[in-house]
Amino acid sequence: MQISTVRPPVHNALVADYFKGDATLQTFFEYPFHQDAFQKRLQEISKNQYQRQALAQCIEQEMASYGVSPKAKQHIKALADGGYAVVGGQQAGVFTGPLYAVHKAITVIQLARQQSEALQVPVVPVFWIAGEDHDIDEINHTYTLQDTTIEKRTYKDRFIEKTMASTTKVTEQKLQELVDIVVADYGEQTFTKAVKAQLDQVTKAKTFTDFFMMLMTALFADEGLLFIDAANPQLRQLEADYFTRLITHAEEIAHVVVEQEQALQQAGYGTPIMAQADAANLFYVDKGARYLLKREGSSYICESKDIRFTYDELMAIAQDTPEKLSNNVVTRPLMQEMVLPVLAFVGGPGEMAYWATLKPAFQILGLTMPIFAPRLHITLVTRRTQFALQQLDLTVEDVFQGKDETEREQFITKQTNQEALQQLDEITAMLQEQYASLQTQLSPALQRIAKKNTAYHQQQIAYLMKKIQQETMEKHQAKLRQYELVRNELLPNGGLQERVYNPYQFIAFNGTGWVKNMCAINCEIDSNHYVVLL
């Protein structure tokens, strides 16, 4: 495995300015991103009180059915005994979801280890699963690279209610069908059989979160990554008093978030969450489905389901049945801060944008927004793609800059019989001119026939041109497939690889060694993009 850095293939002004330490952007965050801030943050949260024993029990109970590794047990004990956490999170996508979920976990693990050494205190890696999210269409599919072609593969079932990932039931039969087609797409690679054997085991999962947990705990067992599901009923009990704080300050939180988002927009960074002044920023959960609440006078309502609670009724729900409440994009970070001793939060560009709206919401609750640590951005390159790049005399950065597409078009143009195409263009122009002249000599009825006749000839010429081009493509298929491979592996659908493929696309070729190796090293978190040659 070889690692290098290149310029980011996709420019994000917010991320770029964050790393530059832009003075205006920095006002939206509590801490700058440098080592001195970690020491300051540690001093801040060391004063706070947390339900450490209950939290440790909750995490251990959450992970028990998936196996708690010796390293994970050490981390659970460290958290219970006064340790701190680097936290990242993601929705529970099939096959772990896109690669960036794994990249987040790697970043969390690396940063926790780095800060534990730098600060000389226990810092453990924690992954917060957004099992309460109900947008199943975001997590029920994955993409594969079938030879050189991108395919979308979906868990096929109908979900009528907006049930949470942690309560949405999946069946072994449908999971097996999905696993079979995904692994078939990978082809007979070095580790395909091992991947198939592992994925066949996890088809016994009961929910999307269960499927996610089975895979992630296996991938990161040796690193002791701790997992906690936001929808865990035991966690909800621990959060009861925190929900009452969120309800008590709901109006103030909504107000300051709207104001902060307006300020963020004026600074040129858009409106990432489209905050509403009447938002309660909480969901009500009924039979596993989530319903967004908003404030109407002194009531909390969801008009689409005819749900209405008074302030006192909602407070009673928070105290007595907190599992009936769920956080949204605004309150999830606030809840994390109350539950966990968060030294730093690891997130991607989208999360950075919405966290930039939340600083005053933390302050309303008497909290301090944690350090925001951007996750590592990584592109993996299989050996077959490395070979294709060598054959084409291209680099990964060349592909990021579009040089491969330019050279591909130039190659096709050079190899195509341009003289024949030019002659056909001339014939087409002559036909149009001659038929236009002929039209003036014909009756209306014959003009219609002549028009159809013209269209027929043009269609036949176009068909011949297509066949000439097709002949070129077939003659040089091997080289053109190399162009297709490097493009579709490195920038699938014109976007970042980490947002499209799941890790098993690469585990099928190289096993899990690259995951362990990436966890073991220390990558600098900066504006660079990491390229990993597998």
UniProtKB/TrEMBL annotation:
It comes from Lysinibacillus alkalisoli. Involved in bacillithiol (BSH) biosynthesis. May catalyze the last step of the pathway, the addition of cysteine to glucosamine malate (GlcN-Mal) to generate BSH. Belongs to the BshC family. Keywords: Ligase. Its EC number is 6.-.-.-. Pfam families: CC_BshC, Rossmann-like_BshC. Residues 378-533 form the Bacillithiol biosynthesis BshC C-terminal coiled-coil domain. Residues 1-376 form the Bacillithiol biosynthesis BshC N-terminal Rossmann-like domain. GO terms for molecular function: ligase activity. This is Putative cysteine ligase BshC.
